[in-house]
Every structure is written in C-alpha cells, then in structure tokens.
Write a structure and sequence with these properties.
- This protein is of the alpha/beta class.
- The protein has two domains: 299 residues, TIM Barrel, CATH 3.20.20; 98 residues, Immunoglobulin-like, CATH 2.60.40.1180.
- It is built from eleven helices and 20 strands.
- The strands form five sheets. The chain has an eight-stranded parallel sheet with strand order 11-8-7-6-5-2-1-12. A six-stranded antiparallel sheet has the order 13-14-15-20-17-18, with helices on one face.
- The structure holds alpha-D-galactopyranose.
- The site of alpha-D-galactopyranose has 9 residues, from loops.
C-alpha cells in the first residue's frame, strides 16, 4: 500500500472509531448502587466540610460496612470553566479542590460521586456539560470520581438518547470506571433504550418527603413515596443487573413517621432500586439508623439475581409484593397504604404463581414449606403451610409494612 492509501485507511479507521459508540463501563452496578447524596437534605448548600464529615459518618455509623459506599455531591459544587474549558470546583466551597476530596473519601474506603447535566446549565443554573462532555469526563477521571449523576435541565432540542450516549462514550474514553446515573425523569422513557448506556435511570419527577401526597408547582411536580411505587410498578421488566429503574433517592430520616420510613425503605429494597440515602447521617436517630442498616432488607435489595419485585395483588386494602431471590428464596412485603390498621389472614395457597414476566420462578407453596423469617423483627416465625388454610393472621399498621424472607 502506498503512503497515500495508508493515510486514507488510517483516517477511515479513526473516523470509524470516533463515531462508533463504546460499551458502557460494565459491572459497576451488578446489584443496585448504594450510597448517599447531598440533594434531599442540603439542596445546593454543600461544601467540602459537609462532604468530608458525611464521609466520616458513613464509616463511624457502620453505613459503609452495610454497603453504602458512594458519597455523591449533587448540584452546586461547580465553579467556572477555565480558559481551556475545563470545569473547576467552586473554590470558596471546596478550597482544597475535588481531587483532594476524592483522595480523602477514598482513604475511608468510600467512593466519590459528582453531578452534571446534559444541557447548557444544571437545574440550579451551574455550568452544564453540553459541548464539554469529553472534557468533563476527563476532568472527573483526573479527579478520581467514581459516579456521575447526569441531569436533564435546559436541554431544549436535545435528543435524550444521543445526549446520554455521548456522555457514556466520554466516560469510557476517559479511562476511569465511573457509574453513570441518568436523571432524565422518565420523560423519554429511558427504560426502553438506556440499558447499554447508563447504570440506572430516574423513572419520574423528584421525590419529596411525603408518604402519599403529590406536590404540584406551576412548572413541576414532586412525587411522594406512593407515587414513586405506583410508577415503578409498571416498569419491572426493564430492570436487571447493571441497569436499574431509579424511583429517586431515599427520604428516610427526613421527617416522615418511622413506619412510613420503614415502608419506604422496604419497598425500595423490594423494587431493587438504588439505595441512595438523603438525610443528614451525622445526626440521625437510632430509629433511622435501624431502618437504613437493616441488613436483612438490604440483602433483599442486593440479591444477586437482580429481579425487581412484583406487585402480586391487592387484598382488603393491602398491597402484596413478591421478589424472587437466589437459591429459590422469595421476599414478600405486605404494604398498608391506607389510613387505618388492617388485619389479614395469610393462606399461602393464594400466592401460588409463576413470574412469567421476568424470572420464570414459581412460588410452589403447594409443594414447598418455606421457613419464614421476619425481616423487621429479625426472628424466624415457623414455616409456610402446604395446606389450603389460613396459616397466620397479621396486622399491618397504617403506612407500614410486614416483610418476610421465605427460605427454601
Ligand atoms: C433535579 C434532579 C434532582 C436534583 C436537582 C438539582 O431536580 O432531579 O434530583 O439533582 O435537579 O438541582
């Protein structure tokens, strides 16, 4: 081949490799990601001291050892871009810079997350990544970032799939494994196209600290816990290892009743949702801590099969949810969304079903006697019965749950 032809071939190959989409970073979220994010509690009022002391608390409380490893800065860490277009941190809020903070967080056995936006500006008006995707990904990689939440404000006339693919490619090209958490609010149904682009995608509007009230503003709406559950109920077939439906971050410890926090957390575990804590863990109550650190519930969320739970039925006002687990086990949560306490007699034979939608697993209560483990009282409570009779009668208080692991 003469030199001219060689040059042509090389340029052709380069052009091809720049236009072809890379694969996203694999195995960063084989089970739903667990961590903390600043937004629900602090909104834009974040600084180095908060992030650093939250990292300290992640360790001292035991949350890190329970599996919560990401410390994620949300909106408003940003300063300006430098003369070459590289984004800088706000130097007043982060006087030591992000690299220093990442080193600190890593020294604690934790990982650091950051936040950006596909558009011109973030939702709080900070610089967005539009037109700077490769530079931003490179900067995050240089800083030692492990997680990117990418928002969707100020994106008029932008194609969602293209925008998220572009950042996914940029993260891959930057060479550091960074989990890509898409925050597009479900507007363009990312569950249909984002499986190979991001590791999770928001399914709806922002959550707020309410069990069951929708909050409507002139230009946007906020979901309650029950609104998030209802939306996610329609999407279970799209979730799986490495690509999760994200009904938004936890409001546990931010002001709901203890029972409501428990129901919220149990349902996020049943739905294999990312578990991103949103309260001030430096000053949480023992009740909040017990909920967030319920290892038996966390094990349901982190089950290796990675199947989102199934809303089996509604009986007498109660919602019955099942989640297939490894080794033929099942989790069951009975959720009371009503205003009054409800009593219900469980006949396991009413729950014989096959999950034809996702896992193909059958409960087989007519063939198997499962050991029943109460996941909130942390005690074993006998076995399921193969007989067609009420085996136990339960009372579920208002806005609360009972959760069992059925062990084969
Ligand atoms: C959007 C996101 C929130 C949060 C804010 C920050 O509303 O959905 O989770 O990141 O922006 O401004």
């Amino acid at each position: 081949m003469n030199n001219g032809l060689k040059l042509l071939a090389v340029s052709f190959l380069c052009a091809f490799s720049f236009t072809a989409s890379a694969q996203k970073w694999e195995h960063l979220a084989d089970t739903p990601q667990m961590g903390w994010n600043s937004w629900n509690k602090f909104q834009g009022n974040i600084d180095e001291e908060i992030i650093k002391t939250i990292a300290d608390a992640m360790v001292s409380t035991g949350l890190r050892d329970a599996g919560y490893v990401y410390i994620n800065m949300d909106d408003c860490w940003h300063g300006e871009r430098d003369e070459n277009g590289f984004i800088q941190a706000n130097s007043k809020r982060f006087p030591h810079g992000i690299k220093w903070l990442a080193d600190y967080v890593h020294s604690k056995g934790l990982k650091l997350g950051i936040y950006s936006d596909c558009g011109t500006k973030t939702c709080a008006g900070m610089p967005g990544s539009l037109g700077h995707e490769y530079q931003d990904a490179l900067q995050y990689a240089r800083w030692g970032i492990d997680y990117l939440k990418e928002d969707w404000c100020n994106t008029i006339n932008i194609n969602a799939k293209g925008a998220y693919q572009l950042m996914s490619d940029a993260l891959r090209a930057a060479g550091r494994p960074i989990l890509h958490s898409m925050c597009e609010w479900g507007d363009n149904m990312p569950w249909r196209w984002a499986r190979n682009i991001g590791h999770s995608w928001r399914i709806g509007p922002d959550i707020w600290c309410s069990f069951d009230s929708l909050r409507v503003f002139p230009t946007y709406t906020q979901y309650s816990v029950m609104n998030c559950i209802a939306k996610n109920d329609t999407l279970r077939q799209y979730a799986g290892k490495g690509h999760w439906n994200d009904p938004d971050m936890l409001e546990v410890g931010n002001g709901m009743k203890n029972s409501e926090d428990r129901a919220h957390f149990a349902m996020w575990c049943m739905m294999a949702s990312p578990l991103i804590i949103g309260n001030d863990i430096r000053s949480m109550s023992n009740e909040t801590k017990a909920i967030l650190m319920n290892k038996e519930m966390i094990a349901v969320n982190q089950d290796k099969m990675g199947i989102q739970g199934y809303h089996h039925s509604d009986v007498n006002g109660l919602q019955i949810w099942f989640k297939p687990l490894e080794n033929g086990d099942w989790a069951i949560t009975i959720l009371n969304p009503t205003q009054k306490s409800l009593t219900y007699g469980i006949n396991w034979q009413n729950f014989n079903f096959k999950d034809t939608q996702v896992s193909d697993k059958s409960t087989d209560f007519d063939k198997i006697e499962y050991h029943v483990r109460n996941l909130w009282l942390h005690k074993s409570e006998g076995k399921t019965s193969k007989e067609n009779r009420v085996e136990r009668t339960i009372t579920v208080p208002s806005h609360d749950v009972i959760s069992y692991r059925l062990i084969k």
